[in-house]
Amino acid sequence: MHSRTESPTAVSTMVRLVRESFARVEPRSDEVGQFFYGMLFSLTPSAREMFPANMQVQRSRLLRALVHIVQMVDRPEDLVPFLRQLGRDHRKFGVVSMHYEAVGMALIAAVKRFSGDYWTDDVERAWAEAYTIMARAMLDAAAADDGPAAWRAEIVDHERLGWDLAVVRVRPDYPVPYQPGQYLSVEVPQRPRLWRYFTPANAPRPDGIIEFHIRGVENGWVSRSIVAHAKIGDTWRLGPPLGRLHVDRESGRDVVMIAGGTGVAPMRAIVDHLSQWGNNPRVHLFVGGRVRADLYDLPYLQAVATTNPWLTVTPVLESEPDNHGVEHGTLADVVTRYGTWEDREVLVSGSPGMIRSTVSRMLVAGTPLDRITYDPFTLD
After folding, report:
1. Nearest residue to 66 via CA among 121, 96, 97, 106
2. What is each CA distance from 325 to 260, 313, 315, 320, in whole angstroms?
3. Half-sphere exposure of residue 10, counting CA atoms within 13 Å on the CB side?
4. Residue 71 pLDDT class (50, 70, 90 cuts)
5. Mean pLDDT, the chain, as a whole number?
6. Is the Cβ–Cβ distance between 305 and 353 less than 8 Å?
7. Helix (H) or strand (E) segment spanning residue 211
8. In this predicted structure, which of 35-44, 64-73, 240-249, 251-260 has the lowest mean pLDDT?
9. Are strands 345-349 and 283-289 parallel, antiparallel or unpaired?
10. How far apart are CA 342 and CA 366, in angstroms?
């Protein structure tokens, strides 16, 4: 995150000032978001065309991104790859350097506006320095990427599994070079310019078809439109692959996977990929839901486990205590009940709330933080 010439003390001061000032404004995140976008569109009116007509959801997404970056600002080994992925992803909007400059000015103005007396020249310098480093990483990655900014894909199958859940299969015009466990941004014709992140549930296939498991979440403009209205022949746009979830077969370390709801998709893709080999790290997959219907993919996963002795699948339900053949409790309850997993790589996927509670409980139980991997953007 920082250059080699900066001292650790200077970096820690920058991190502290950015975090403390952000903590001041985060409770007023809606107002911060409104002010930020108003300032951005006044500085660069052409940027308005990159965003949807309804900005309500977009504002919350901005704050989620900022929270994630602020939390990682002193962990360059994690943050820099994330920023590079974001830089490549933003090519699909036609973003250029002048947009980054305008975003930086609008962001600093918005935080300053709501920081009150806490804002000082030192705080402003810290934000300017942090944003410059972020923007440089993103711009450099975008400039170095010679692949497509986006891929066109056609729906070839739409299978509705329930009123709020669908499996959608798309065929891109050209293969999308994602790794099992990564996610993609998606734009659908029902909601133009409202890009959302979804995760392929299969490893890359020779025919290029990608399977998505999509649940219509509350207030989910895109996810609900896909479940209810997407149809065969619709054209989607897919952004470049993002994310860090993966299994290194050569590491010699066994794996714990923890998946809530449709968070099973990246784990399923990784398992699909690993099943090509007879010898793999041992994988213990905990797949959880509130009710039995949430474990919609359990039969497939159990079938894979019967022919792949390296895979163990443990289903978990939060309710329906009379249901047999499953563990009961939250995923955090059950996973920590089984052990501390300090000798395993841990992958976590699901809603932000599920990820937060599970990771927190595992850290308290003794799982090392550097063994736990999760991705930030999983919701509509």
Report:
1. 106
2. 18, 11, 8, 12
3. 10
4. low
5. 87
6. no
7. strand 210-215
8. 64-73
9. unpaired
10. 7
Name the H helices within the chain.
8-25, 29-43, 56-71, 76-89, 97-115, 121-144, 221-229, 264-274, 298-307, 331-338, 352-365
Contact 291, 317 (CB under 8 A): yes
Distance CA 290, CA 301 (A): 18
User: In angstroms, rounded to a whole number, what is the distance separating the alpha carbons of residues 340 and 333?
Assistant: 12
Enumerate the β-bridge partners of residue 334: none
Question: 151-238 is classed in which CATH architecture?
Answer: Beta Barrel (2.40)
* CATH number of this structure's domain 8-144, picked from the four choices 3.40.50.300, 1.10.10.10, 1.10.490.10, 1.20.920.10: 1.10.490.10
186 near 198, Cβ under 8 Å? Answer: yes
Interstrand relation of 184-187 and 235-238 (parallel, antiparallel or unpaired):
antiparallel
Q: Which residues contact 143 (CB under 8 A, 6 or more apart)?
A: none
Q: Indicate the class that CATH gives domain 255-374.
A: alpha beta
Per the model's pLDDT, the better-predicted residue between 137 and 255 turns out to be 255
Paired tokens of 311: 């895979």
H or E stretch covering 152: strand 151-162
Edge-first strand order for the sheet with 345-349 is 327-328, 311-317, 283-289, 255-260, 345-349, 372-374
Distance between CA atoms of residues 65 and 25, nearest Å: 15
**Measured distance CA(131)–CA(13) in Å, rounded:** 15
- pLDDT given for residue 82 in this prediction: 79
Give the CB-side neighbour count of residue 345, counting CA atoms within 13 A: 18
Place of tokens 């299978």: 159
For residues 54 and 225, what is the distance between their CA atoms, to the nearest angstrom? 15
pLDDT score, position 379: 40
Q: Which pLDDT score is estimated for 380?
A: 37
Structural domain boundaries in the chain: 8-144, 151-238, 255-374
Close Cβ partners of 286 (under 8 Å, ≥ 6 residues apart): 256, 257, 258, 259, 314, 316, 331, 334, 335, 338
pLDDT tens string 236-256:
999 989 888 999 998 889 999
- For residue 320, the SS3 value is coil
pTM over 0.70: yes
